[in-house]
Structure formats: structure tokens, C-alpha cells
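Hi C.,

You asked whether I'd gotten around to modeling the 312-residue construct. I have! Everything is below, sequence then structure, no commentary in between.
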Amino acid sequence: MEAINIEGLTKSFGSVHALNGLSMQVETGTVCGFIGPNGAGKTTTLRILLGLLPRDGGKVRLLGQDVVFGRDLPQRGKMSYLPQDPVFPERHTGQEVMDLVAGLYEMDPRTARERSAALLKEFHLEDARRHSVGTYSRGMKQRLGLATCFLPEPDLLVLDEPVSALDPEGRVEVFGLLRQLKGKATVLFSSHILEDVERVSDKLVMVKAGRNLLDGPVEDILSRYASDRLRMEVRPEDVGNAEGLLRAMPWVSAVSQDGAVTGVLYADVRHGQMETALDGTLAGLVQQGVRVREFGQSRTDLETVFLRLSAD
């Protein structure tokens, strides 16, 4: 069953076309990463999906129900949303915000208290729960927003840049929680931290200029764009010799140096010749006196795919 179904979504702001026929589906129980360059239409899509912004064209269904701007979502009690910069009543304490959200979801008071206490501790707000939100840093507000999203145990979480204000430790904790939701709830989240997206997501949707560039399981996408490339690290004094030897190998089409790490070379392998390259390259270098510290096939990660497609 599809928790999210978007077909041919269009939206313009004056002469700016934010969405140009965007379509995507997210199956129930899937953690879906939603990525794209700044201005690609991610936040606009999320706001239309939640009925917070009217669309110009297309169809949007959420948890089996049509989404219509200006109408209350009949499935609102089964979902939660976190904007990139959550806003709360400044005079409320963190605990009062949690109590307010629990009331909106009509949660059982005892269950709400227990979950609220556990989540405030989980997000390192236990000591700050009685302080007014106006005294919170941006990161603390984002932690509080995440706590409110998890409070009602929703079937669907829609999160817009949920870790943008968090430190590395906080990011790891949040994505660990999202990973635990696989198969239990549906998560759609946007993020610019592609390493985290790759680590936690089952599915990936990448958009550019309001259109789909990629849509599918993360592993399938990485396999599809896997590069035929070798990576090796040699001693700095061997770089020139190694580069010349690599260029002379018949299975190598191009050679480049890593601009950030001295001694690291990349060799692009001609199509269909990777097995030959793996067998012959290292032996050829070593036989000519090149001291190789590391050698192997270059791994294609999500950031590599993103940068390649964003530049096209």
C-alpha cells in the first residue's frame, strides 16, 4: 500500500516554476530520503503534501486520502510534521509544548506523560524541560520538534531537514531512531547530509528544478551509477611514475589525482575491463617499483551520484 502518492504535481510562484510534473510514491513502512539542490522544490512539495499550500495541478494522496488545500486532513491524527525551523510559543516550557501536542492528538494522559518523559530524555532536553522555549538554542528547538513528532507514535512522519541544526552526535541519534521505524512507520525526510540519507533510507527520490531525476531503492541507484574506477594511494614521491604507468595501461581511459589527499590516484577503467584492471594494475605498478599503500575499486556513494547529476 502507498502511504504517499504524488502524480504530475505542478506549482508556480509568479514566473517561477517550482514544480514541473513531479511524481513520487512511497510505500507504507518505507524510510524515503528526499534530496535535491537548493530551490529544487523539496519544501514546496512537502507543504503541498500536507495541505499547507495549494497546487496548480496534479494529484496528491496521503494515507489513502486525497489532499485538498484548506481542508483538514482526515488522517491528521496518524501523522506528524517537522518544518526546517520549528516555531513554538516562546513562553511555554519544553514540557508544556509536549503537553500541548499530546492534547492535540488526544493522547491518554498517562501514556503522554510516560512518552514525553522518555523522549525529552532521548533528545537531551530532560534538564531543560522546565525552561521556556524562548531560552532554547536553534538546536534545542529542533530536538524539541523531533520529540513532538515522535510523541504520538504516528504512522507517517514528514520531516524537512530534521538534523540541520544538530551536531554530529545528534544526527547519529536521530537517524538511528528513523532506522528503527523501518517497517513500522513511513518516513519522508529531506536532508543535505547525503551520507546520512544513504545510511538510513530504503528509497530515494532526487529532484532538480521541480522534476524527478532519480526514484528508486538506494542500492539500485548506487549500482546503476557505479563507476568503473580504481582508487590507489602511493607514496608522494611515486605519484609521477605511477601516473605515467597508469596512462600507458590499455584498460585505463583516464587518470586523475585526488585534490584533497596527496598520493591518491584514480584510474577510469574502460567499459567491461574491470576484472582485467583489477588483476593487472596493481601487479604492473609494483613490478615497476611503485610502492602502493592502498588499492581497490572506487566506491560510488550517494554524494558522488548527487554531484554528477546536479551538474548535468
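If it helps when you're writing up: The CA atoms of residues 81 and 158 lie 5 Å apart.

Thanks,
B.
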